[in-house]
């Protein structure tokens, strides 16, 4: 912002130059130390990471640590040069103003990157889900394959890999924490005998429970869920181990239909007669 | 921004250095005190929290308090070093400008984190819902499992766990505060006797009320809700204990159908003849 | 930003220290006064609030006033300490820059909080709706239970409580200000006699008006609203007291159907013959 | 930012204190004047407003003018105190930085308020709509009841009052500026005689025009709008006075149907034979 | 930021006061000139505008020019007063900081206003559409009635006026630039003779082209657009003058149906036999 | 920020005024040069542009170059005046603060303009599409008519012109780069002979390929795409020249239907018998 | 911000001018060096890029490197000129303030550009997808043709090229990483023998697996997926090589239908008898 005042006598100039030199050396030394310390920290983090559940492989670790090293080294050197120029008395205002505008644009552009990293950290820290869990984020459902620094990868059961930036993860639904419920709505003809149907349903679900591994409790027959104009629906629910509701539902569908057919309960809607 | 003026005599330099030394010591001492006070405060908060309804377990408390301790210690030390460098006369403008741009990007990226924490605080402070309540946030409905600092966990009745950042909670619907209403729309054939049907409905709902635990008042038969081209609907409502409307609705469905059948009121739409 | 110039003679140093001491005392005294005044203001506001329509209960008032007291005391003391340090000659730039970045993040995160409070104030000040009114905000309709500083609570007729932050209230529909209109569209068979139907409708609605409490004017038969391919619709509207359109509609549905049946106007669509 | 240099002789200190005193008095006087002028301006505005089309009632005017008076008085006094403290030589940087962060948060939160007021001003200034006009904003249609500083109130024909913040008004549709068009699509059986139907339609609409008040021109028969698989539609349009298209449409529906029936044009779709 | 140094001798004070007086006069004179020049510019712009295609009427011009004059006069005087106070040596930092926060809130609130004006300028400059053109913006279609500084008014053919802020105009569709295409999809029974139908269609469209004013080229029979399960569609297109596709389509509908009927091509879907 | 120190002797005042005069002249000269250079650059750019693929016509070039000239001249002169005032010693802080707030509002409002220009530049630079290509942006599909600095104009095949600001172009689909694929799904009755149908389809598409210009390869019969409850679909695809898939599809529709009819493969769904 | 103090003796002026000259030369030299170093770096990057998987062709590389060279040269020269002017003592505040507002607008407008580049870098670095992969972004599915600095080009199988800015890529679904699953839901008539159908399905899928190249495992018959009112569905899944699920599904469709037909399992829904 200003420079050496000119109303100085000669010995003062010498003293002044001496002071400046000392400060430049100080800046240089501090810059060296900062880079060294940063390198050490990176090494520690890389080693810690290799043991962490994030499972980043060796080769990628190296790439990242070199990248970060370079980034820090360039930044520190740049700042050191600017500090030294500042000591020599250059007015760096314009340079800084330019850098500020550029930095602002980059800062705006990079904010979603920062958000990705912060959210990713909290997903792991809060243990929202782990590798192997079945989760759903928006319309993307599947098994978690990797929780990365910036993105999460989910493999759907049909083989697609969904890659979602962590900052875009708003609501997570985790299917692997608790037992799930299979819901079967049994259609009956409008004039079917409801009470008898419920008795038969209770019989068949108890029988299915005996034979089926993934059902954890005797399924419940809840009652008449809906009375439509030509049929009615009775709801049956079965608690089963996580993510087995599809399989259990298919078994219940088949067994209930066969059992009701055997016992003469009309399920089919017959049109036109 | 500037440094020791050079037009100073020798004793003045000594005085100047003395002043600077005092200030550096002062900075150091204050930094120490700030860290100590912060540590004490964290300890207090951790103890207070362990008794609080937030129910954070011991192990996680420790993790968080160590994390916060480190964060504060690093920050205070960094600031102290910069203050001391400032006293020695280094122009720290460029350093600060760089940190500002970085800080801006982080600030932008972290704003949703801050919003999560603020909203989380108000959810608890305003007692919007508690652990165990049945609530709905957007399309996610279930029982509240945990109200955390940053996220709320809801367990749906089919076993999924929905994890929602607090800052994303815009509208909450709480189903556990008041009695709920079960709504049953009874379809009648177009040429059915409306008045007789209403009398019969009043009889059956009174009877159901006697026998059913979760209905809190005799259900009401409201009247002809809709006149369609081939059928009409009569609405029946029943006030029941919170979250029991599904169960009560199923009972009413079954009993009303059986009662009307018995008394010969036509409900079924017969097509084609 | 700078400190006492060193080219000063001894008495000047004494004078300088004296000046600084005076300023520090001044800062301390002002800080005390600000805290006292703030406490008084809080007390006044709490008392005023207890009489206000906001109906905040005693216990919560206390919690809030202690909270605000602490907040102000900490802030004022912090500022006072910084002002004093500034007098002693410490360069507080770095500290402030750091606080600025943190403050920015908090400011961004807190902006929706500020918006909630401002909007809440205007809802009350402009008398948009009051406790007990039936209103609709987005898809949430119900009776207003509480208009709070930050959120509004609406109880739907089926018993759910919707909690909506005030800043999210964009469009409000108030159903309790004026009389409402019940709309009944009467279906007629395609070959029905329109003119006779209108005469009969006028008779029946006049009769219903006599017997029904919540209709405020004789309902109007507007005319042929729609000519479809197999039926046509005649619209009847009835002005009724606020929020009674459902009840009035049900009565009109039943009475019109019975009256037209009695007088042999074909309403039913007969398919296939 | 700094204070009186200490290398001053005694008379200079006296002069300095004299100067400071003068400036403090100057600040005080200006603060008084600003408040007085503001009060006068408020009074003028209140009087002007009471005559303006905004129709704000007396009582509310008073509330607002007291509110604004207090706001200005507090602000001016606060600024004056800070200016005086600045003269005494206190470093107010930290105070201002804190106020800045708070102000930023409030500024962000208040921006929608400012937007409401600006848009409201332009709605009135550009005469987009007036009290009594029938308008539609998004899905809310009704008669304008009040155009306020911050919100617009619209009363729908079924009695609801929609309250919309001015800043949320993006597209306005005004139905009260021009004559409106009633559109009637007449269905004909697929094998009907198109040319004869058009002749008959022309006869009936001319007749209706004679008898009906709100139609401003003889309605036009536009032609075959659509050829479907089992019927075809002929479009008839009628220019009528603003917001009367519903009423005119109902009259045309009834008269056209009766006329075509009389003249044996098949409109009805006969299924199954 | 600072004031007159006190270590000054008497003649210097006189010189200092003299300098300040000169600067104050200079500020006053410049302020006068700026206001005068601004007034002249406004006058020029008003005159230029009255001749421009924006068609702003005289009365509104006056209102606006007085408004702008006042705005500029107040602003310039305010700035001049602040500059003069700055010369006298008052620390205006706090005042400016307060104004800055207020200005920020207004700036944020006013940004959509600025965007409206900028976009409006470009709509005119780029000649996107003119008064009288038929355009569509989002779901609003109609004839452009006025392109204003802030809003565009569109009159739909049914008489509504849509008022859209220019900044909300994202995509414009202009229907008045080129000839439009009328599309007629002719349904044929599944077992109709396709080749003969195409020959007949070519005959009828050539005949219609001869008789109809708004068709600019002989319409084309494109071929079998779709093969459904029970019918197939042949597409016919006709280039016609802008915005006449509705009228031309109605004529083609009627003529094609009559021609195919005459020549025994089955169009009607016959159900059930 | 400050002005000439008063503790100056007379010859120093003279020197000071001399320095200031020199600087004012320097500012004036630099301002002149900047304007001249800018004018030259504009001329060069206009000439370069007239040869560029942007095809801006002569008249518009002139308008724009005059506009830019004026803009630069006013800006440079304004800055020069402010620099000169700054040299004379006026405190321009308040002026700049005011301009900053105004500039901020304009900056925010103008950001979409800047984004339009940047995106427009990249569309041309990356050769995303050219004039004459058939592209789709959101729901707007048509032939590119003009790629402008701020907007892109697309003419749909029915004659509308869609005008889209470049900054709103998120995803572009270009139909003119590669050959397109015509897809024909042939419905067969449920009991049709699949293998024979596929043989016949292979025969007919080979025959069509011989006769049709725009098909580039023998079309492929892919197989049974879907088995519904009453019919099944066989998919046929044909690679054709860009944007000819509609035409080719119509030919395939007609020929396949006629060929299958001739060879007695049932396509028609027969209801009810 | 200020200039040479006037209370200087002659030799001091000389010294001052000497200092300034040295600094100007220093600025000039550093500017030269920065440009040279930047050029070298660009050359290195261009060479590195030509070997990289980004596959940017030679001609475009040259265009870009010249562009970047010019950009850097202009920027560095501009900054150097401003630094030199700053040394001569010009108050550049106003200039910088103006540039700041302009820069802010550009910064806002350019932020999506920055975001594109950052996201593009991470897509390549994280190996989300490569050229030749089949991916889906929003509704755009196809083969990746080019991953550019700013946009990604995807070619759909029907020949369209979708061009998507990298910053708009939120969720990527990669279809080329794992085997995919073909899903076939076989409809059976309601009274079909489920157990026998499952046995037959197991036979046919095993047979198809033998004959078909792209199926990697014997397909699984999962069970009764759904029981509808008139039919039921049995689900069969087949793991196949990536992106072959369409082809495999078509083969399974045809073979299953033929096999069930042969063995007399009713699949067809027969209406009305």
Automatic annotation (TrEMBL), chains A, B, C, D, E, F, G:
Location of the Mechanosensitive ion channel MscS domain: 113-176
Positions of the Mechanosensitive ion channel MscS C-terminal domain: 184-266
GO cellular component: plasma membrane
Protein topology in the membrane: Multi-pass membrane protein
Transmembrane segments: 13-35, 64-86, 92-114
Keywords for the protein's UniProt record, in alphabetical order: Cell membrane, Membrane, Transmembrane, Transmembrane helix
Intracellular or extracellular location(s): Cell membrane
Every Mechanosensitive ion channel transmembrane helices 2/3 domain range: 70-111
Family annotation (Pfam families): MS_channel_1st, MS_channel_2nd, MS_channel_3rd
Keyword ATP-binding: no
GO molecular function: mechanosensitive monoatomic ion channel activity
SUPFAM superfamilies for this protein: Mechanosensitive channel protein MscS (YggB), C-terminal domain, Mechanosensitive channel protein MscS (YggB), transmembrane region, Sm-like ribonucleoproteins
Glycoprotein among keywords: no
InterPro entries given in the database record: LSM_dom_sf, MS_channel_1st, MS_channel_C, MscS_beta-dom_sf, MscS_channel_2nd, MscS_channel_C_sf, MscS_channel_TM-2, YbiO_bact
PANTHER family: MODERATE CONDUCTANCE MECHANOSENSITIVE CHANNEL YBIO
Family: Belongs to the MscS (TC 1.A.23) family.
Summary of the function given for this chain in its UniProt record: May play a role in resistance to osmotic downshock.
Name the record gives this protein: Mechanosensitive ion channel protein MscS
């Amino acid at each position: 912002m200003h420079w050496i005042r000119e109303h100085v006598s000669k010995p003062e100039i010498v003293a002044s130059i001496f002071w400046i030199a000392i400060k430049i050396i100080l800046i240089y030394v501090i810059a060296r130390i900062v880079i060294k310390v940063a390198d050490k920290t990176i090494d520690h983090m890389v080693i810690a990471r290799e043991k962490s559940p994030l499972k980043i492989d060796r080769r990628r670790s190296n790439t990242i640590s070199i990248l970060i090293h370079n980034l820090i080294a360039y930044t520190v050197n740049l700042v050191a040069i600017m500090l030294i120029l500042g000591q020599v008395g250059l007015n760096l205002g314009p340079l800084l103003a330019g850098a500020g505008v550029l930095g602002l644009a980059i800062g705006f552009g990079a904010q979603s990157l920062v958000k990705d990293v912060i959210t990713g950290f909290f997903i792991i820290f809060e243990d929202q889900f782990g590798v192997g869990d079945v989760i759903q984020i928006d319309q993307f459902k599947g098994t978690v394959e990797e929780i990365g620094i910036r993105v999460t990868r989910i493999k759907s059961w049909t083989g697609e890999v969904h890659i979602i930036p962590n900052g875009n993860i708003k609501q997570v639904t985790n299917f692997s924490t608790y037992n799930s419920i299979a819901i079967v709505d049994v259609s009956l003809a409008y004039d079917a005998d409801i009470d008898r149907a419920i008795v038969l349903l209770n019989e068949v679900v108890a029988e299915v429970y005996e034979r089926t591994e993934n059902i954890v409790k005797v399924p419940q027959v809840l009652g008449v869920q809906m009375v439509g104009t030509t049929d009615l629906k009775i709801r049956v629910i079965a608690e089963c181990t996580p993510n087995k509701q599809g399989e259990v539902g298919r078994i219940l569908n088949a067994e209930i239909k066969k059992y009701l057919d055997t016992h003469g309960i009309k399920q089919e809607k017959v049109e036109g007669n």
